[in-house]
Amino acid sequence: MSSPFYINSLSKTTKGGFTSNIGQHPWRLLSSSSPCKSSSRVCRFMVSLPRATIAMPLTHANNFLLANGDKTKANSSPEVDVLHSRIDELNQKTRKVLMATSNPKMKMKLLDTIQRLGIGYSYDEEIIHKLIDPDEGQLDDDLCTVALRFRLQRTNGLHTNSDVFGPFLDANGKFKESSIQDIETMLSLFEASYLGANGEDILSHAKEFTTIHLMKSVPQLTPTQREDVLHSLELPRHLRMARLESRRYIEEYGNESDHIPILLELAKLEYNQVQSLHQMELAEITRWWRHLGLVTKLTFARDRPLECFLWSVGLLPESKYSAIRIELAKTISILLVIDDIFDTYGSYDDLVLFTKAIQRWDLNEMEHLPEYMKICYMALYNTTNEICFEVLKKHGLSVLPFLRKTWIDMVEAFMVEAEWRNGGNTPNLKEYIENGVTTAGTYMAMVHLFFLMGEGVTIENMRTLHDSYPSFFSVAGTILRLWDDLGTSKEEQERGDVESSIQLVMKEKNITSEEEGRKQILHLIHTSWKELNATLVTPDALPLSIIKVALNMSRASQVIYQHDQDTYFSGVDDHVKYLFFTPIDM
Question: Which of 2, 29, 177, 23 lies closest to 483 in space, CA to CA?
Fold first, then answer.
């Protein structure tokens, strides 16, 4: 059975003149005959990418490592000082524009533009103030404005009720045709519908209603409108990776006739400045990785610091998290090595020893390990302790028990997979997903980031976190696990891995077509997004900052695993090139 959001394919012509197809709305499905290109190895975390996918950018990364020495020197040159001065000036002008805009619709559009351009972090307080202003939400607001305000409020963590759409429904609870008189309103309501949670039928109806109308309207649209609609149908804004969307929208915004020049200049300067920061971060990570020496000692292990850093940027796009991105990339790099040990190199008996050593978290346990495992064990032990020391210095928190637990849980989950393979056992779909969320690195990444960020940490939520992982961690991990399977299942089956969620759902539902099995997985992802959206509706013991990380993990999962040419989902090498090595022309 097709999922409720599955629609027929639609051919599109882009600016470059090429034609491609949008397949399964809202997320195009890679066909089984042309899966995500990859090598004979697949990682369990968020970087299941081919070994040679980004070889060219990695060379650039090494060049940057050699060319960019002292980080502080790069940040204190006369040119940089002039740049900072201009950015400060533009920030002040932008703030004045923001405060001077009074028209409700124009105000919401301005807030949306600022956030899409990637400069919203400088105006968090002003944006929240505008969104909770009691003068907002006038009775005569049109549906376009109401939908935009609703999306912005939920995106920014305000618990807005979907009842705001009530005035636009008819006696049968359906949206009035008269309420939607133009493509802008239709698109605004469509985008808002993707922030719906389970039980919000009004938003489910809005999604169905707008999807049908947008699809029908495409042939009559102007080229600019057509491109906007097709991009949204292919990937709604709520699901887009922040930095990639900023890059895309900055280049698009300059072509809009009513664009504000100071916003465009500020967005370009900020983007290029953050890109320079990313280059410095990448140089530091590469330096650390070389010094660690794992790949020189363990020739079977993957050498992918750049891919790990790409995920760090996906989860933490804000420039203020520079140091934390570096620490996260370190943990992912070590995770990949551990995954390779479990997946391709370690014997079953060695894996049992390694699991016991991690569980005991004692350097004396190294004596019982084979040589190739000792260096990995030491790297994990030292890196975790170094991160704990950083958290203690910055936030005064002693977090070793929490971080250690995530590694123990993950290694135990890897061992479960090894036992499935060794015993020829097949888990059911529920068991597979629950275990796969852990082996994907979900809990490890989320817990490390919660303490590294140090925002909203209390004794109560620390205690809760130690007892069990929050449900929204698990939901984000489910989305990650399922996108991983959609992108890498064919390769894993060729390698002889445990059956993926696609094969398991086919068995449980007696499905013979792999394409239909993939549709079922897309439906699970769709349902999981509704569960994840619920964290934006109901208060949680954890702060909005870590909820946003979970949302970003889910967004990055799709963008990286569902890559293809000539669409929003361009290849990962293109993402790396534009994010880290190609500045925006001023």
Answer: 29
* pLDDT tens digits along 272-314: 999 999 999 999 999 999 999 998 899 888 888 898 999 999 9
Residues 77-266, CATH architecture:
Alpha/alpha barrel (1.50)
Q: Which of 385, 296, 294 is nearest to 337 (CA)?
A: 294
Residues of the chain short of pLDDT 50, as ranges, are 1-57, 71-73, 565-566
Q: Under 8 Å CB-to-CB from 47, ≥6 apart: which residues?
A: 304, 307, 308, 310, 311, 332, 336, 560
Q: Torsion over CA of 260, 261, 264 and 269, rounded to 10 degrees?
A: -150
77-266 has the same fold as 10-37+267-581: no
pLDDT at 68: 59
The domain 10-37+267-581 having CATH identifier 1.10.600.10: the answer here is yes
| Angstrom distance (rounded) from CA 380 to CA 400 | 12
Q: Domain-by-domain residue ranges, the chain? A: 10-37+267-581, 77-266
pLDDT of residue 166: 93
Distance in angstroms (rounded) separating the CA atoms of residues 529 and 194: 9
- E strands within 354-477? none
Residue 392 CB coordination number (10 Å): 14
pLDDT at 28: 36
Express the helix, strand and coil content of the chain in percent, nearest 5 each: 70, 0, 30
Q: Tokens 């491609």 sit at which residue?
A: 20
Which amino acid is present at 66? L
Give residue for tokens 């967005």: 267
CA distance 123 to 327: 27
Burial of 388 (C-beta count, 10 Å sphere; 0-12/13-18/19+):
buried
Does the reported pTM lie above 0.70? yes
- Beta strand pairing call for 19-22 and 10-13: antiparallel
pLDDT at 11: 36
Reported as a single tens digit per residue, the pLDDT across 76-87 is 577 788 889 999
